[in-house]
Design brief:
There is one protein chain. By secondary structure, the chain is of the alpha+beta class. The protein has two domains: 87 residues, Winged helix-like DNA-binding domain superfamily/Winged helix DNA-binding domain (Arc Repressor Mutant, subunit A), CATH 1.10.10.10; 55 residues, 2-Layer Sandwich (Dna Ligase, domain 1), CATH 3.30.1490. The strands form two sheets. The chain has a three-stranded mixed beta sheet with strand order 4-3-5, with no helix packed on it. Strand 1 and strand 2 form a beta hairpin. It is globular and about 55 Å long.
Length: 142
Amino acid sequence: MTDATGLRYDKLMEKKSRFSASRNFILSLLKKSKQPLSVFDLQKEFEAKKFSVNKTTIYRELDFLKEQKIIEEFLLDDGVKRYEILSKHHHHAVCVKCRKIDCVELEQELKSQERQIEKNNKFKIISHSLEFYGLCPKCQAR
């Protein structure tokens, strides 16, 4: 089955998971967004659409979607958890002034570095997180 966001959710249907209006709305917001969204961002979107939803419901839906490996959560230096649709592994470039977040892909170079770290440190890497902090083009121009 493919829902309005264009993503496949066969495994959810196999588990007889229901697609509530709030879950579908969260998925569509995350899919449309050019950057990861916080719970506060999601709440603002619900309010803008006059869609009454409890913050606990948003957290519950996000937890469910994380468990199903449909979205991922990450934490930046400001301590705010953000969410995005799970996709090809990538990192983030964060503007320290306006907090704009862009995706950055470093596939080949990073794999080489991971192999070197594992070899030099006899350390088995399971996952990693890498963010870059600086100024976006708009903030540089100011």
